[in-house]
Amino acid sequence: MSIAGAQLESRFAWRMFLAGGLAATVLYFLLPSGGLAQAYLFVAVQGLVVVALAVGIRVNRAARVGIWKVLLAGQAVYLCANLFWYVEPLERGGELSFPSWADPLFVLAYLTMAAGLVALVRARSRGLNRTDFVDASIITLGLAIVLWVFQIQRTYDVSGISALGEVFTLAYPLLDLILLALAVRLVVGGGTKGPAFWLLLASVIAQLIADIGYAEAVLGGTFSYGTPQFAGWLIAYILLGTAALHPSMREIARPDGRRVLVVDDNATNRVVLHDQLTAWEMCPEVSDDAQAALAALRQAAAGGAPFELALLDMCMPQTNGMELARLIAADPELAATRLVMLTSAAEIDWAAAHEVGIAASLTKPVRQSQLYDCLMRVTDPGPERSRPLRRVAAGRGFRGRVLVVEDNPTNQMVALGILDELRFQADVAGNGLEALEALDRREYAAVLMDCQMPEMDGFEATTEIRRREGPGHRVPIIAMTAGALEGAREECLTAGMDDYISKPVTPGDVDAALERWLGGDPGERVVKEPVVESTTSEKAVDVARLDVLRGMGPRDGSLLVTLVDAFLSEAPASLAQLHEATARGDGKALQQGAHRLRGSSANVGASGAAARCGELEALGAAGDLSTAPDLLRGLEAELDQVGVELRAVASGALT
Questions:
Q1: 77-131 per-position pLDDT tens digit
Q2: Beta pairing, strands 425-429 & 389-391
Q3: Overall pTM surpassing 0.85 (yes/no)
Q4: End-to-end Cα distance, the chain
């Protein structure tokens, strides 16, 4: 059976498990109390939970499978413990001893499950810090004291149980409280809250109630097999198995995942997109036409695990992507799904697209980096269905919010790092159209505007911003461009921009420009340009620029490593585009591609590569591509050396 087919069947499996489990619970109490039939039914239900967990891991294609194997192992040990504790004594004639061989197994099972939950919490919250641990410990200890003083202590008058037996008996509620604290931490962590979260939490609570009843009965000398607290354990097992099979378990099973529906009539395209999304730890499903897509969307919404995103092919038979988007937008249960259009056409009618809820459009063939950047913008969490990414400066008083309008991911990261150091909050828009949308939603202290971008460039965007502004209101727009041609500053000012910064931008340049238009910052000067001695070493990467980047962002220098990784991923695809443009004789495409790569190269200190890109950009603008092949060969060799040096930077070998 295919993964998609297994996922479809899992939508009904949880209902079957829940109904069957409740029926088994009723049957348990209809059987002779304290008999072997009850014991075998009890362990059979828990055995089915182990199977449900294994199936859930497979069907939901769980990320970080090692974590789930730990949780599965904990339940398997728990099953073995129940065999020793419940079935084996009854086989011997109903004798119950405290402690038994089952008790160490129970404790081991609890600790194993706790270890798995700790790992899961860390995966979802990106680190369980010391404060979280201390808070959980204090809450757990406090609840344990309350349980002892007001509940268990009242029945602590039994004789004949060894001290070790008492320790084991009282350990179970305490271990349950630890599991409960971790489950609560998992639920209150980031991300959506599907039914699987609440089923998991309810399972732990039912387990806790049953274990408290067990401790009271044992310490009070009234415990016997088949008593009502067994219902608590059975319900705990049933809820856990239901959670494992519920479709929304994917929100837990794949902590970094987003549910994505791919709609494309081309089988090859579906396979490629499915593999790409899976590699990024997203949770893709595929449909080959609009009707199947609508059915999948509605079924997911009804099951409590709606798709966060849908990738729609524009050109499909019968119902195309735009018509499908209208149908999705018209259904209130589906309207929250963000839509991205994939089209072979050069342009899309954005007015019509926005009416039907299209958040972004990509032209085929789509590069992986393009697709990833688009998905990250579209699925950025927030109260609105907005595309700009948001980065908030935390822990320090901020000086205002700035909109960065830039299509290049490397340049975006540099701008965000600089603004963070300058104590500005920032949003990012990928082109002029996104900038207009962002400015319609909120006010900004200033706009940092790239000039050359797809769909709507910085000049057009600035002209439209100025047209929309009312009297007495003018947001400062500061141009950021790699263009160094004579008259570039005048062109920016003519379009309505207020200032001009040449790329690669530096913290000092940005600070000075913002200070000119927003006023001085009386606080501590947060950016100091590094003083770098001149060097005669012939390197493809400028060490001074690397020092600037190393000083931005987190103090561990991780921003520099991120920038290096982004550039090394982006450069080969950009170079391939330049080769294609040259082979086609497409001067405009060569100019645009060279400009884009030039900005990225300059930002990471690859000044030689940036200079060669500048020459190619000029050739593309002039329409004379006769010398472009030679320049491309030189650029390729330069980028090879840049790659060697930047990889050394990422590994810490270059200082």
A1: 999 998 888 888 888 775 556 667 788 898 899 899 888 888 777 666 544 445 5
A2: antiparallel
A3: no
A4: 53
Which residues have C-beta within 8 Å of that of residue 653, sequence separation ≥ 6?
none
Confidence of residue 42 (pLDDT cuts 50, 70, 90): very high
Query: Which of 319-333, 531-545, 614-628 is the least confident region?
Result: 531-545
DSSP 357: T
Cβ proximity of 239 and 233 under 8 Å = no
DSSP line for 137-193: HHHHHHHHHHHHHHTGGGG----S--HHHHHHHHHHHHHHHHHHHHHHHHHHSSS--
**CB–CB of 419/510 below 8 Å?**
yes
Cβ(559)–Cβ(577) below 8 Å:
no
Mean pLDDT of 523-530: 42
Give, in degrees to the nearest 5, the angle at Cα 410 between 621 and 340: 85
Q: What's the confidence (pLDDT) of residue 43? A: 92
Whether the per-residue pLDDT at 531 is higher than 50: the answer is: no
Structure token pair of residue 97 = 């001893």
Specify the pairing of strand 259-263 against strand 446-450: unpaired
d(CA 611, CA 283): 42
> 654 phi and psi, to 5 degrees?
-105, 130
Specify the residue for token string 């603004």.
419
User: Rounded to the nearest 10 degrees, what angle do helices 409-421 and 507-518 cross at?
Assistant: 60
Close Cβ partners of 251 (under 8 Å, ≥ 6 residues apart): 191, 192, 193, 194, 196, 197, 257, 305
Tokens of 592: 């645009």
Return the structure tokens found at 45.
């239900």
Report the pLDDT value the prediction gives residue 27, as an integer from 0 to 100. 93
pLDDT higher than 90, residue 334: no
pLDDT (average), residues 445-450: 91
Mean pLDDT of the chain: 76
- Tell me, what's the pLDDT at 279? 63
Assigned token pair, 502? 């040449």
Nearest CA-CA partner of 613 in 308, 98, 604: 604
Phi/psi at 261 (5° precision): -105, 125
Phi-psi region at 400: left, alpha or beta (left = phi > 0; alpha = psi -120 to 50): left
C-alpha dihedral sign at 24, 26, 28, 32? negative
Cβ distance 18 to 242 under 8 Å? yes
DSSP state of 429: E
Residue 37 has pLDDT above 80, yes or no: yes
Torsion sign across C-alpha atoms 72, 125, 238, 16: negative
Q: What are phi and psi of 338, to 5 degrees?
A: -80, 140
Residue 471 has φ and ψ, to the nearest 5°, of: -65, 140
Query: Which alpha helices (H) appear in 31-101, and where do they start and end?
Result: 36-59, 65-82, 88-91
